[in-house]
Amino acid sequence: MFLGLVFVIAAALCVFVAYPLLSTQDDGKAVLPVDMTPAADLKRRRMVVYDNMRDLEFERQAKKIGETDYQALRESYRAEAARLMAASQELERGSAEDRFIENQVAARRARVKAAAPANYACKKCGFNNPVPVKYCGNCGSPLPKA
Ligand SMILES: [Zn+2]
Question: Ligand 1 center to residue 102 CA distance, Å?
């Protein structure tokens, strides 16, 4: 009787402990921090590499690491930091596709501006309103009816 009770309690405890580990309710979508843009992620990874480099220096000063291992690790950290820096700069510069789109938008804006009729231009301030309006978009003075 007592042994049976112990067994039941042990079994219930096992289920209680194992349930979260075996549960498949998670749909695989891990919740990311809000600030996990690609740029922020690269910066975070670079900071981790800097921390590792600092720790490596401490370990060397404490003579916990051999000179050969130190040089190898230092070189790999430096290479990783350089790679992350280059990736950050590339991200800031934008991809060739982004530049193409920006150029197309600029060209189209120039065409629209060139095609805008001059009668939308304000006689007071000279601002060329892009669409027919009653009042100037720049100074607010009334425009003659088109
Ligand atoms: Zn005006």
Answer: 29
Structural domain including 69 reads 35-97
Does one domain contain both 57 and 90?
yes
Q: Which residue has the higher pLDDT, 66 or 132?
A: 66
Q: Ligand 1 centre from 112 Cα, in Å? A: 19
Look up residue 143 and give its two tokens: 């425009």
Whether 94 shows a pLDDT value over 80: the answer reads: no
**Extended strands (E) in the chain:** none
Burial profile 88-102: b = 16 or more Cβ within 10 angstroms, e = fewer: beeeeeeeeeeeeee
Tell me, what's the pLDDT at 49?
Answer: 97
